[in-house]
Every structure is written in C-alpha cells, then in structure tokens.
Amino acid sequence: MTEQKRFPFFDEAAAPAGAEGWESMYPYYLVPSQETREHENSLFWFADTMHWSRGCHPFDSIGAEAVYYGAGAFSTRIFTLPVSLGLDVRVVNGYVYIAPQGVTDPDEIQRRVATFQERAGHYYANWDELYGRWKEKMTGAIESLRSIEFAPLPELDPAEVVTEARGRSSSLALAENYHRLIDEFFAIWQYHFEFLNLGYGGYITFFQFCKQAFPLITDQTISRMVAGVDVLAFRPDDELRKLAVLAGDLGLTGALTREGATPEEVLADLGTSDRGRQWLEAFEQAKEPWFNYFAEYGFTHDQETWASDLSIPLQGIARYATMLAAGEDIARPVDRLRAERDEIIAEYRALLSEAEARQFDELVGLAVKVFPYIEEHNIFVEHWAHNIFWQKAWQLADVLLAAGFTEQRDDMFYLNRFELDEVLADVLQSWAIGVQPRGKARWQKEIQRRRGIVAALQAAPAAPAYGVPPAQVTDPFAVMNYGVTTERVADWLGTSDGGATVLTGGPGSLGVVEGKVRVLKSELDLPSLQAGEILVAPITAPSWAPAFAVAAGVVTDIGGMMCHAAIVCREYGLPAVVGTGFATTRLTTGQRVRIDGRAGTVTVLEDEAGAASGPPADGSAQAAAADATTTGAGR
Question: Is 164 inside any structural domain?
Fold first, then answer.
C-alpha cells in the first residue's frame, strides 16, 4: 500500500538557527510535547498566518488561547456544530497552527444536529434582536477595558488609605487590574464567536443548497448573491474616500500628496489656511472611532493603528485624491454589485420548482441577514477592543519600567501571561517590603535570550501545514475563513516541490489580470506597492482597502471565500486568488503573472528579468477582466 502523502510532523520541524529552545517561551499546552505526540501526529495542522503573520512574542500568544477557546466552546459545547468540534491549537517555531476536530460517528452527528437546530434556530429566528444585544455587550466590554488603569507604584500609599480606613494597600489594584485585563480579553473572544460560526453556517447552508440545485454553479456566483451589503467594516475606508473628495473640493490635493512630507508636516501645512483648517476639522472627526483600525489584524503588541501612525490613513487619502484629480471614480461599485446580485438571484430562482424557490428564498434571505456579521464583528473585536487591550498592556509595561524591573519598554512582551503574573507578584511584594525585585537579574538575562529567539523565528517563514490531511475537510471555519478545503490541501501537497509555474488557490474575486508582482510580507511593506502591481501577501487585512485602489489584483497564501481579502476584493471589483499556500515564497517582486479569479490560478509569465516562463497571454487583461465580470452565461 502506498503511504498517504502528508506534511512533516511537528517533531520533524527543526528550529531556525538562533531559535533553539523557543518552546520554553510559551505556556506548556501551546507547544507540542512527547506526551501529546500521538494526538498531534494524527491531526492536520495549518498555519494561522491570517492573524499571526510572523512569529509571536510570548505575551502575544494569549490570542491563540482566547481565540480557540472561544471557537471551541461555541462550536463544541454551545451550538454543537454537527460535524465539527473546535480547532486544536499549537505554537510551532513561533507560528500559530490550528487543527480542525471532526465528528465522524453518524449517531453522534444526529444527536448534535438536534441540539444545533434548536439552539441555532433560536438565533436565526431572532437574529436582529440578538445581534443588537451583541453590540451592546461588546460596547460594554470595550468600555470596561477602557476603565482599567495601571498606575506607577508610589513612594507611599495615598493618605486616603488611612483617612478612609480602607484597610488595604492601593497597590493591590495593579494585580487585580491585570487579571481584569486578561479576563476581559477572554470574554471578548467568547462574544466574538457567539455569532461567527452561525454566520458561516447560514452561508454554508445556502451554499450547499445551490451546489445541489445547480450542479454547474461556481463558488463565485454563489458569493455574488450576497454582494453589495453595507457593513461597518467598510466605514473606515469610506471615511478616507470622503476626506479625499473634500480635499479635492477645497483645492488641497497638492498639500496632501506632497512627496517626502511627514504626517506632521502635512498637517501643520494644512493648519495655515482656512480651507486647510476646515479639512483638518473633518479629519479629526473621522479619527474617532474610525482610525482605531489596525493596519493588520491587531493580534500583536507591535502593530500600529491608523491613529497611532497617521502616515497610513494619509497615504490612503493621498492615493484617492490623486485618482480623483486624474478623473477616476473612487466609489465602491455598490449599485453595480447589487444589480448583478439581483439579476443572478432571479436567473437561478427561475430554474426551480415552486417549493424549491420558497426554500431558496428563505436560504438566500438568511445568508444576506447573517453575512454582515462575518465582516462587521472585526471592527468591534480585532480593532476597537484589541486597540484598547494593547494600549493597557503598554501602560502596564511602563509601570514595570518605572519600577526598575525592566530595562526596555517592550521587555514585558517577552514574558507569557503566566510569567507576567509571577513578575507582578514579585514587584508588588518587593515594593511593599522595601527591597529590590528579586527576579530582575534572572528575567533580564532571559529576556535578552528571548529577543534573539523571537528575531530568528520572525526571520523564517511559516510552514503552511503539518501532519496528515483528512480525507475530507468539513470544519466550516477552516473552509470559509481560511480556505482550507480538501481540494486546496491536495493542491498544496501536489505543488510542494517549488518548481511549478502555476499556483492554484481559491477563486476569491472574479477577474483576469496581468501585472508585476509586489510581495508584501506585512503591513509595513504597503508603502512600496506601486500602481498596477499584483499585491501578493500572506493575507490582507480589511484596513488595506486603500492599497486596493492602486493594485491590479490580489494573491494570498491563506484565505477562503469568506475571508476578508475575498470579501473586500469582491466589493471593490478587484480580481483575487486566495489560499494558494505558497505565493509569498514562490513568487518574487518583479515577476509578471496572470491571475484568474474565476479559476483560482496564478500563472508566472516572466521572471524579474523579463524572461518568459509561461504561455503568452491570450488577449488583453482588460478584455479578459470585462469578460470575467459579465453576469450572463458561463457562471
């Protein structure tokens, strides 16, 4: 019997040079072990580079805990998804890997179906009311995070401890607030999954109905039946577009596009005129809350928001202002998307019997109802809540620095959350006794060791997967968000030799286009993107939307039909291929490629020097793109 093709096992993954001993940085249950080796080797693990695009610092691994605790609880214990449990999680060489847990026993599936229908049915029947309550819960949780304060330890407790006979040191608040910070973070990630898998489930149910009723229908056509929906996630980019329009109306495009000017210089220059001050007033109004938006996904302490790095939104505004000055339309094509959506729905509905049409109407209505949450929740959780969480974490880091325990402001993030709890106990008790913290020298030595390890981990790319692929990938989260399907895994295994000129991925957004590649490893590389280039990245964040205004197409390593890259590209009419697995390591900046967003392929046409490495293009990219976005026959 031929051995089943597989990816390496965890214990076959060598640490990058300089990163030996990385396992000691993370909680024991997040790293592979001999004790759990049999379990780990029986599973298929794929990299969650969507949320952690680089090796994570020890403290930042808290996200891997909170995310998959929440996902597991709601999938396995609350809504009981019939064929899927939670996603197991490990950190390997600094990167986060997850493994779907399936249910295969038919009797157990039927038991879970009954519970799922009852519980999920309650949410689907009361979606608008419950979603409104969800927003209230999230707003309350965000405000609770905001109320947490970490104050430097004083020389003496305040007099009120005596005059009000409080009977306890005010310093206890430091540890209490740290625990509140962690607990609120975990609670927020419980809220995150209250609706998410139901959103995916509603869409998947509609998707499966369409596949059965219309055997030749494409995934793209199904996704276009829920296009053109207004969601909060597009609001930050809409604010940039509005500011670009205002800049054009006020004759300020030149001031915003001045080459080489820093954000401070641009804003100071605008403040010298009445029109500039009018624009700055609108700019300030847009900042809260819409600039509380991470340039990536907000899962690490070192990411910038638009508010903390104004060069990010100003660059987006300048790009839009330049396009407007050239006579281009910068509006999102919502009307066209909705017209196409309605036409597609009508065409396919006409093919059904009366009973089937009623079921179709119900399912497409449910898909449209639940779809906004799939994108919208990110604003509340990954951006607004995470922004405050990291602000508070940095505030705590400043307390440790002021107490003399750490030597650099970011030292704290080289401790995991349990180690930090011990450090806070040391700092508080030493302060109370009147001695120096007892673990300072020990932890400074360890932090310096870990600095080198983290740097080595982040310098190495993540392996796309480990372990044995399942016969069928059934987890809705893996399929819809990450694009890890049975077919995609087979493609990854089949193209792992590195010599192919065609990469296969998921059809993220319709269109065929050719252009030169620009490989972006993170949001820090965004300024290098040039007009007309193909943006290639591990994954794109919703906040990258201004870059889509100049990119000709998008290719990602990871992502499915409902990942943010695919959704945003569809809403902006940009061709995209997602979930290729290897694009950032197989493609290099300067290569010329053709991406086909319908077929899900990326074909290398020329290398950096212009030598042909694939078949010639058959027709202009413009004509192909126009054909690919037609709503007539061939869907």
Answer: no
Q: Is there a single domain that holds both residue 370 and residue 414?
A: yes
Q: Among 335, 364, 383, identify where a domain stops.
A: 335
CB 483 within 8 A of CB 578: yes
Mean pLDDT score across all residues of the chain: 88
| Residue corresponding to tokens 């990871």 | 558
Q: pLDDT for 468-513, tens place per residue?
A: 988 777 666 677 788 888 877 887 777 444 456 888 888 888 889 9
Q: Of 222-231, 377-386, 423-432, where does the model show the most confidence?
A: 423-432
CA–CA gap between residue 548 and residue 319 (Å, rounded): 10
State which of 288, 306, 335 marks the end of a domain: 335
Q: Which residues contact 608 (CB under 8 A, 6 or more apart)?
A: 588, 589, 590, 591
Show the domain range for 317. Answer: 232-335
Residues 355 and 366 in one domain: yes
Residue 332: predicted pLDDT: 82
pLDDT at 16 exceeding the cut of 80 = yes
pLDDT digits 0-9 by tens, 50-65: 889 889 999 999 999 9
Domain count, the chain: 3
The gap from C-alpha 315 to its chain's centroid, in whole angstroms, comes to 21
Write the pLDDT tens digit of every residue in 184-219. 999 999 999 999 888 888 888 898 899 999 999 988
Residue 261 covered by a domain: yes
Burial of 281: CB neighbours in 10 Å, binned 0-12, 13-18, 19+: exposed
Q: Which residues contact 375 (CB under 8 A, 6 or more apart)?
A: 231, 232, 233, 234, 542, 564, 567
pLDDT value, residue 626:
33
Do residue 393 and residue 529 come from a single domain? Answer: no
Given a cut of 80, is residue 635 above it in pLDDT? Answer: no
Q: Note whether 513 and 616 are same-domain residues.
A: yes
* Nearest in space to 416 (alpha carbons), one of 440, 398, 439, 443: 443
Residue 102: phi, psi to the nearest 5? -95, 165
Other C-beta atoms lying within 10 Å of the C-beta of residue 422: 12
**Residue 91 in domain:** no
What's the predicted TM-score (pTM) here?
Answer: 0.88
Between the alpha carbon of residue 393 and those of residues 100, 182, 307, 584, the distances in Å are 31, 10, 17, 32
- pLDDT of 547 over the 60 cut: yes
- pLDDT of the residue at 610: 55
Determine contact, residues 400/427, Cβ cutoff 8 Å.
yes
Which residues are CB-contacts of 24 (< 8 A; sequence separation ≥ 6)?
none
- Cis geometry, peptide bond prior to residue 289 (ω within 30 degrees of 0): yes
581: left (phi over 0), alpha (psi -120 to 50) or beta: left
Q: Name the nearest CA neighbour of 467 among 112, 188, 90, 179.
A: 90
pLDDT band at 374 (very low <50, low <70, confident <90, very high): confident
- Do 443 and 528 lie in one domain? The reply is no
Q: pLDDT tens digits for 264-275?
A: 999 999 999 999
260 and 201 together in one domain: no
Does the pLDDT of residue 453 top 50, yes or no? yes
User: What is the torsion angle, in degrees rounded to the nearest 10, for the CA atoms of residue 102, residue 108, residue 112 and residue 113?
Assistant: 100
Supply the DSSP string of 489-500, one letter for each residue.
Answer: HHHHHHTTTS--
Q: What are the two backbone dihedrals, phi and then psi, of residue 310, each rounded to the nearest 5 degrees?
A: -65, -10
* C-alpha distances out from residue 506 to 149, 419, 575, Å: 45, 41, 12
Residues 527, 611, single domain; the answer is yes
The answer to whether residue 9 sits within a structural domain is: no
